[in-house]
Write a structure and sequence with these properties.
Layout lengths: L6 H16 L99 E2 L14 E2 H16 L4 E5 L4 H15 L1 H4 L16 E6 L14 H9 L5 E5 L4 H4 L4 E7 L2 H10 L4 H5 L9
């Protein structure tokens, strides 16, 4: 699936989307990033998390089972070979399930394993930070790449700030349960990732803001200098906009121009060059619009 709207159409769509956000509580925007939950509850009230589903193969593609023979005993037709994922063309391959891998795919069908995974190399990057505590941390690889990217943005006159980084399993329990208490689980699932299903827990992703904080965590952030710069240039430093515009049926989340995910310069540049918008398509793992 591709999205190449003209600039005027995108602006109009964003305005429509912003109006959509203002409609009643049943139409809240989906987001994996919400850093603060309304009335956060204690972690002891965490609802059960769905059991992990079987993962695809390391190359990101599932192997089809052969069809059964006919009643007359005719041998089945050979199954067509599964199409390789676009990422298979790269000379180096990484795990799609290991949370310590830069290619791990975490979505509503692919929980972290173990669910309470914590990176062993969390550090605070030398960048402008508006977050505090654990939210100011990233894994060491992501931190180094973020430092290079923020410096490049600054040279172009763009002030970029780390607004939310690592989030532990315990923090995600509290955040998610706060939404459940305030809205009920069905609506909470449109506003916060369930514990063990958040990219923030891996240390490979973070949210950005402009230096002045304009439109932070709002759809209008897409038009702020930091978001415009990141969309055009983040791939040069190994990052992609994880939840792009109009791909919520694939990713499970509406547009988050602030949420960047590190996958490495080679993969991010390849995705950009091919015009592939989502990790689901690039790694061939299938769409995850909702929890199983």
């Amino acid at each position: 699936m591709r999205h190449n709207c003209a600039a005027s159409a995108v602006t109009a769509s964003r305005r429509s989307f912003a109006r959509f956000l203002a409609v009643g509580s049943g139409l809240t925007v989906l987001t994996a990033c919400s850093p603060v939950a309304p009335g956060a509850a204690s972690s002891s009230s965490a609802p059960l998390v769905a059991s992990p589903v079987p993962s695809p193969t390391a190359a990101g593609t599932a192997v089809a089972a052969p069809e059964a023979a006919t009643a007359a005993g005719t041998p089945p037709e050979p199954s067509a070979a599964p199409s390789p994922s676009p990422s298979a063309a790269l000379p180096r391959q990484f795990s799609l399930t290991d949370p310590a891998s830069p290619w791990v795919v975490v979505n509503k069908h692919r929980p972290l394993a173990p669910a309470d995974y914590a990176p062993a190399d969390l550090v605070s990057p030398a960048v402008g930070i508006s977050a505090s505590g654990e939210s100011a941390l990233l894994n060491s690889t992501t931190a180094a790449a973020a430092e290079a990217m923020f410096a490049a943005a600054a040279r172009d006159g763009v002030v970029m700030v780390l607004a939310s980084g690592y989030r532990s399993y315990a923090t995600q329990v509290s955040t998610y349960n706060g939404y459940v208490a305030a809205r009920g689980q069905a609506d909470a699932d449109t506003a916060s990732a369930r514990p063990g299903y958040s990219e923030h827990q891996t240390g490979w992703s973070f949210d950005i803001a402009d230096g002045g904080g304009a439109c932070a965590f709002q759809p209008c952030f897409a038009d702020q200098p930091a978001a415009v710069w990141a969309k055009a240039s983040a791939h040069r430093f190994g990052f992609v906009v994880r939840y792009p515009w109009m791909f919520h049926e694939t990713t499970g989340y509406y547009y988050e121009p602030w949420h960047l995910r590190y996958i490495g310069v080679e993969a991010a540049t390849d995705m950009s060059g091919r015009g592939i918008a989502t990790l689901e398509e690039y790694f061939g793992v299938g769409a995850a619009p909702g929890y199983p």
